[in-house]
Amino acid sequence: MKFVRVLPMIVLCVLSLLLAGCNSFRISEDDVNKEVAKQLAQQQENHISLLLDGNTLNLDLLVTEADIDFTERDGGLVLVDLTSNMTGTLKAFGQIFSLTTKVNPSFESGVRIEEDRLYLVAPKITKIEVEGSSFNDKMLRSTLGSLHDDFEKALVAYFDEHPVYVLNHSPFEKTAASLVKNIIIKEDSLELSIF
Questions:
Q1: Claim: this prediction has a pTM higher than 0.70
Q2: CA-derived radius of gyration, the chain
Q3: pLDDT tens column, 38-62
Q4: Exposed end of the chain (fewer CB within 10 Å): N or C?
Q5: How far apart are CA 100 and CA 189, in angstroms?
Q6: Residues 155-176, buried b or exposed e (16+ Cβ, 10 A)?
Q7: In what order do the strands lie in the sheet with 77-92?
């Protein structure tokens, strides 16, 4: 019975000794991309409502792929390219048009930690590609240009709720998560400083 009470203290001491020898650890770009791919495989469609001059554009956006790239440029950025299927309706010229197309937004952001989860911060759209050459695709392409800020707000809201990585892949990560003091974006990895 005494062993059961002593075991958590032994584990804590061993972890403390392990952590005492290091003041940071890294999470690779590949690990984050694998985590995001796993999340996308389980995710449901996200309904996004955007307004344009009193006409409503109702979109259902389903992200099918995400490519995350860490770069030290401009003090450290997370560059994200999304591939998504978009369906919805657009009211224009007194008519309702149905839309089905691929939309591929790219954006850059920072990263923050909350408890044991890493979130993207303040995504800024750098480009939006609409695939296809039909009239509806062209109309959506011009509409998304004027809805840039609203689309950005929708991305911010989404990434405020959905972490890109959870620090729970090992006992070390779980323990170190509560000790992270700073995140530095390096080429191809995140460096999480502890202590």
A1: yes
A2: 21
A3: 888 876 655 565 655 555 677 777 8
A4: N
A5: 36
A6: bbeebeeebbbebeeeeebebb
A7: 46-52, 55-71, 77-92, 95-114, 117-130, 165-166
